[in-house]
């Protein structure tokens, strides 16, 4: 995949294009720590487990200005089996906070979609807070491409 | 031009049914990260809160940060216990409140 | 989910292929709020391609999905603004568009599929934007709208949206439309700018290939004004000028003879495609 990437770059493969669109991801983003801190604030220091929550975002976003993102949490949405809120973070944006969804029994299902801005290729993180005090997390990397044509 | 918020709510549902609601509103969502032609920062102005209620009960809320795209779009679900009215409010940083509502009939 | 999987397969095939990168336009069908949209059709006689393909087929699944329901399409905000403008009285004659043309849903149906048309007064092709200005100055006693100003794009989008789903078909027998078509063809195939590119270099010769991360389409105009994820509502002449700027050439003025000829020719190249206004693109 890495070898063929250069073919994809096509007509005007510049150094900048490699840096941005390349498969290799810079290991540490400036705001990855900020994202971690926001998660800790949200969970009150508790560890978020895997499972229950699924985050849907494109593997490759055609434009970073408008990237669809959905969350779906497996929950009866009744009694103690209730999702109270879901925080969405993007750990490579100037400010990692994207949105916080709040659900109630009236939501019926803990499911929501919106559209976000991503400054570059990065991880999008969703953490769900359950009424029983537990937390669940999912994470997806979204590659943000740089178009050939400013137009 | 300030256009009306766009909302899509089914006209009817059966009692207890979970329906999907979609909303779209016109807004620049100025992030505060941009600069004007003279290099001065453009101040942030976003919609920071969206709320959907059904007969005064909260169904869904969202706190928005500047990373939400221009013309904020939401899709979410709602349980319909009886005939009633969904109300939607969007709060702007400048204090403006944009509102819309849609009735639903339980058959 | 199925759409995501299809997209995944498509993306994988693009990235995994060796040799020249060519990605077929996706095999997908479009309905907007249940109305069938022609995104792929047999090309008219004399066309360089066998099939004309909407730019919709060249976009990723997530972008394509935004166009399927008008409630999800941010371009519809502009269409509603255009509707407000349609009903707003302006100028010394105390008229709005609606004063003469009543309900746009009836009177403007089909208009967006047939423009540009021959304008006997100016002896040139006229597009929707210029027709609006003609009405404003001659009927409403209002000032002509400057390019992309004063709601020009929104009103154009509203008028064209009334023809949603209808196939594009120009009448080249009117006036000198044929010679403007020829002139537009010359513009289309003339290389310009420091990069020495013609419209045809990207949208005909390299159609289906990637220019960096952009999947090059046929450059069809059936969805203009279009909502670009990058920059919001975008008019056709804005897009023409953007493309030309990217070839590092001097940009012709909006509605100049060169660009009116190009609009005539490029619109013909999309003969048979449904009007998609406001389409959603990257």
Q: Overall pLDDT of chain A, averaged?
A: 83
Rg from Cα of chain A: 17 Å
Count helical runs of chain C: 12
Distance from N terminus to C terminus of chain C (CA atoms, Å) equals 21 Å
Strand content of chain C: 5-15%
How many extended strands of chain C? 11
Question: Helicity of chain C, in percent?
Answer: 40-55%
Average pLDDT over all residues of chain C: 92
Please tell me the total number of domains of chain C: 2
What is the element string of chain C, with H for helices and E for strands?
HEEEEHHHHHEEHHHHEEEEHHE
| CATH fold label of chain A | Immunoglobulin-like
What is the number of independent domains of chain A?
A: 1
Which chains make the largest contact? A-C, 30 and 40 residues
Strand numbers in spatial order across the main sheet of chain C: 10-9-11
Q: Characterize the largest beta sheet of chain C: strand count, sense, and whether it forms a barrel.
A: 3 strands, mixed
Just name the CATH architecture of the largest domain in chain C. Orthogonal Bundle
State the CATH class of the largest domain in chain C.
Mainly Alpha
Provide a descriptive summary of the structure in words.
Chain A has 151 residues and is an alpha+beta fold. Chain A has one domain: Immunoglobulin-like (Sandwich), CATH 2.60.40. Helix content of chain A is 18%, strand content 37%. Chain A is built from 3 helices and 9 strands; from the N terminus they run αααβββββββββ. Chain A has helices at 2-9, 15-21, 32-43, and strands at 49-50, 53-56, 60-61, 67-73, 83-90, 97-103, 110-116, 122-130, 135-144. The radius of gyration of chain B is 16 Å and the shape is elongated. Chain C has 282 residues and is an alpha+beta fold. In chain C, the strands form 5 sheets. Chain C has a 3-stranded mixed beta sheet. In chain C, α3 (75-86) crosses α8 (152-161) and α9 (177-189) crosses α12 (257-269). Chain C has 2 domains: 2-72 and 166-281, Cytochrome c-like domain (Cytochrome Bc1 Complex, Chain D, domain 2), CATH 1.10.760; 76-161, Cytochrome Bc1 Complex, Chain D, domain 2. Classes of the chains: A alpha+beta (151), B mainly beta (107), C alpha+beta (282). Chains in contact: A-B, A-C, B-C. β7 of chain A pairs antiparallel with β6 of chain B, so a sheet runs across the interface.
